[in-house]
């Protein structure tokens, strides 16, 4: 995707550069500047992320992080974190929270940047907000600011960053976390640019997780912690670089590649795309109805629609031919020996949807990954790059699915906007149902409902700390 270059009306951006433009936009941002649609979207995405965090608090990756902190003798403190029993220092709480949120592939995302903003922004806002006893208005404003930074930077990098091997959640996410923390700390544009400059030096995260293991789960944790630390270092007086995004040895050249692009002329606030009802990035993020990589959701939608409307069953399937964009099609080669890889695998996930009529957390266990009915179908699923889908990505995450049945029928579906997107969203009732389904098993139904009631009115809270306590295990 080519990055937008400002026209003559955006000359200020070209003069000051994207780092300063972003810093000025998010510094001092308060809810009076945020339209009602985006404000409600921020509530919804906070609820959605916290549900994923609480459900992910008992996953193996989270437990490994907690054990590692204990072994290192770090982390103990007074800051609560959603779904977690242990109280930590603010940095460790943020790391644990970010790991919780991304661990079950249930967290939100921004299509244009192929990034998961909630997992880096919400833990940072919750941990630092609870420690500093900020108001609900300040908390929600920091969430909006953090999403803006994460999503715009990721969109300006993608898909070049992906083909260079970088995971935008770990790279752009660290800056989003720093902006979230800077907003909570009341930074002006100078300090915010400094926080961005420090965070850019701490960005990391590559796609080695496609070879297996659980390291991907920790990417948002690492990014969220390092972003908060960057903001705190600025508060402590550390000198930091300016223009870190566009500098010739800066973020964009390192992670997205130079390729003759003049990043100093990038209109960072125009990177990606917007919902028709709002210019804020949080308003155009998606939520996941299925517990798998978002690149596979259009394909799941397609086969589930065939099952619902055409009566398709797994036993009838002879072949499944899927055409999609290159980034998605690469997941056609991913195996399923571990839960991590199975959630990224087109053959396993689409076969699961056909056999079980769903794609939930319960469908990625060890026994499920050995299910003969599913394994017998994976070999019939073929994935290729579709020129149309590839041409419109990342504006759309499309897939074309053709199913040939044993009796010769051919069923076809094209899905260009999978369920859960901002243009095809979960209802508020659906957001609440997902939250309660994830949280009640951990906190109990009464506590889960009480927390949800607080979250729908989060910007009315005088102090965010009681909410953080209510969400902790």
From TrEMBL:
Molecular function (Gene Ontology), one example: lyase activity
Domain MmgE/PrpD N-terminal: 21-262
Pfam families: MmgE_PrpD_C (PF19305), MmgE_PrpD_N (PF03972)
Domain MmgE/PrpD C-terminal residue range list: 290-456
Cross-referenced Gene3D superfamilies: 2-methylcitrate dehydratase PrpD
Entries under InterPro entries matching the protein: MmgE/PrpD_sf, MmgE/PrpD_sf_1, MmgE/PrpD_sf_2, MmgE_PrpD, MmgE_PrpD_C, MmgE_PrpD_N
Family recorded in the similarity comment: Belongs to the PrpD family.
Protein name according to UniProt: MmgE/PrpD family protein
Species the sequence originates in: Neoroseomonas soli
């Amino acid at each position: 995707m080519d990055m937008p270059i400002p026209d003559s009306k955006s000359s200020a951006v070209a003069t000051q550069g994207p780092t300063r433009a972003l810093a000025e936009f998010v510094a001092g941002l308060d809810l009076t500047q945020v339209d009602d649609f985006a404000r409600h979207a921020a509530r919804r995405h906070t609820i959605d992320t916290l549900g994923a965090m609480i459900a992910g608090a008992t996953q193996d990756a989270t437990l490994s992080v907690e054990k590692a902190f204990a072994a290192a003798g770090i982390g103990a403190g007074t800051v609560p974190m959603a779904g977690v029993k242990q109280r930590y220092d603010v940095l460790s709480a943020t790391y644990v929270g970010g790991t919780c949120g991304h661990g079950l592939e249930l967290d939100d995302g921004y299509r244009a940047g192929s990034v998961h903003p909630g997992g880096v922004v919400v833990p940072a806002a919750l941990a630092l907000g609870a420690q500093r006893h900020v108001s609900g208005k300040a908390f929600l404003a920091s969430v909006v600011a953090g999403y803006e930074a994460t999503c715009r930077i990721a969109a300006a990098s993608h898909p070049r960053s992906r083909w260079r091997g970088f995971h935008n959640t770990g790279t752009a996410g660290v800056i989003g976390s720093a902006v979230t923390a800077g907003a909570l700390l009341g930074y002006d544009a100078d300090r915010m640019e400094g926080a961005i400059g420090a965070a850019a030096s701490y960005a990391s995260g590559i796609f080695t997780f496609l070879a297996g293991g659980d390291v991907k789960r920790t990417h948002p944790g690492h990014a969220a912690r390092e972003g908060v630390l960057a903001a705190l270092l600025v508060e402590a007086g550390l000198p930091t670089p300016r223009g870190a995004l566009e500098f010739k040895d800066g973020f964009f050249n390192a992670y997205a590649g130079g390729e003759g692009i003049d990043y100093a002329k990038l209109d960072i606030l125009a990177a990606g795309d917007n919902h028709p009802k709002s210019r804020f990035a949080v308003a155009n993020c998606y939520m996941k109805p299925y517990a798998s990589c978002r690149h596979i959701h259009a394909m799941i939608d397609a086969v589930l629609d065939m099952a619902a409307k055409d009566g398709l069953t797994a036993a009838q399937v002879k072949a499944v031919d899927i055409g999609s964009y290159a980034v998605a099609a690469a997941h056609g080669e991913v195996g399923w020996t571990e839960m991590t890889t199975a959630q990224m695998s087109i053959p396993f996930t689409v076969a699961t949807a056909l056999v079980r009529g769903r794609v939930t957390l319960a469908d990625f266990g060890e026994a499920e990954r050995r299910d003969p009915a599913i394994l017998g179908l994976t070999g019939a699923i073929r994935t290729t790059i579709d020129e149309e889908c590839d041409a419109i990505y990342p504006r759309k995450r499309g897939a074309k699915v053709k199913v040939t049945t044993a009796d010769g029928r051919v069923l076809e579906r094209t899905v260009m906007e999978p369920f859960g997107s901002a243009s095809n969203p979960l209802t508020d009732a659906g957001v609440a149902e997902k939250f309660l389904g994830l949280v009640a098993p951990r906190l109990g139904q009464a506590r889960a409902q009480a927390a949800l009631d607080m979250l729908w009115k989060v910007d009315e809270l005088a102090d965010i700390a009681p909410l953080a306590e209510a969400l902790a295990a």
